[in-house]
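Consider the following assembly input.
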Amino acid sequence: QLHLQESGSGLVKPSQTLSLTCSVSGGSLQNGIYSWSWLRQSPGKGLEWIGYIYHGGSTSYNPSLQSRVTMSVDRSQNQVSLKMYSMTAADTALYYCARSSLSVFDTWGQGIMVTVSS
Amino acid sequence: DIQMTQSPSSLSASVGDRVTITCQASQDIANYLNWYQQKPGKAPKLLIYDASNLQVGVPSRFSGSGSGTHFTFTISRLQPDDIATYYCQQYDDFYSFGQGTTLEIK
């Protein structure tokens, strides 16, 4: 059974960079029909898609975040990673990774709370 | 950007009731719409895809309909386990979600 687990920095200072990793178990990143998405959820903005990456490294990002986001894949570790730059308090949210197709997010991690504060 | 507007934002109903939630898209999205259920402290769970198709393993009391800009999500007979927040999500242009409908038991 596919399992996704987010890990990384839960507390980030303003202007600094968020780094998160999603570890995939019970399945391979290399199933080419799926992409691997990052989403976030906050009381102010609700659920927001950040972007996705395929195992080959091709990406698509939310246009509103594109200038501050980079995703990467480590096929040897079965992991995908998210970096978000120039963090502000508005980026405080619960961050999820999820398996995605062209249309749905069908398997989600449990999420990791990220707080931006000095 | 495609904006998704759900109504109502919250809803109180009794066990056994028929419950309906609507989702309006800011432009025509054909049937490119999904519905998710989120219970407190948990990640969202896919219930309905392509507006009306039930995800494997989801009880048949859940259903969806609609196309274009107007969509409906229905629980035919509300069960206590259905207490959650429900979200619609479009995938016609990138991805965006409605603001959610919180369902409570009366």
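Chain A has no helices and eleven strands. Ask yourself how this observation constrains the way the partners meet.
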